């Protein structure tokens, strides 16, 4: 399940978003990757004004103490590695298109991406994202945001909201403007009854978490589409002018 939210105006956003989806499908569903068939969806409408992308990567401090050597935990997980490479490949395809159109690096069309993938390598889900499209989970009454936005306002919050609040639409990473991205990719345990929401900021900026939690808490196999329609209408009712894209998924036994 994947959402890609285009940026760079309607035409450019559509190209970038569809290129991301096509490249992910090509990479993950090619022979030898042991991918299970997934539902993949791209949004069809795009904002006239593109978010600004600031190519910054936060680095974590490392412990200078000598390590005892690699352990089993240090061995890269094949499913995580595969998805990371798929996202990097998708980024390269959009970047190549920007280069063909003579855009300087750091500019041009782009897209966010967020999704969940299940392969035969793992019984667990692989969650991945670049940008500010999000993955949420509702489990046994607990609602949580699984991903953390790649945005200046998220960094501002992470560092204690010091200084002036940055604009909502300044991204620190997106698919396409730069030659390289560093996607967040991780394994998440899933269990029967979990409800996942993957969405663009056109939804998350317009509907409060409490409302999202309430809707996801009512999800069943029979009413997922109805709940999705309700969330879109809520975003529009609350003044949503950006594109609104979402996918709902329910884990069944």
UniProtKB/TrEMBL annotation:
Which Gene3D superfamilies does the UniProt entry name for this protein? PPM-type phosphatase domain (3.60.40.10)
In the UniProt record, the signal sequence range is: none
One Pfam match = PP2C_2
Superkingdom of the organism of origin: Bacteria
Q: Which InterPro entries match?
A: PPM-type-like_dom_sf (IPR036457), PPM-type_phosphatase-like_dom (IPR001932)
Record domain PPM-type phosphatase: where: 1-251
What's the protein called, per UniProt?
Answer: PPM-type phosphatase domain-containing protein
Organism of origin: Magnetofaba australis IT-1
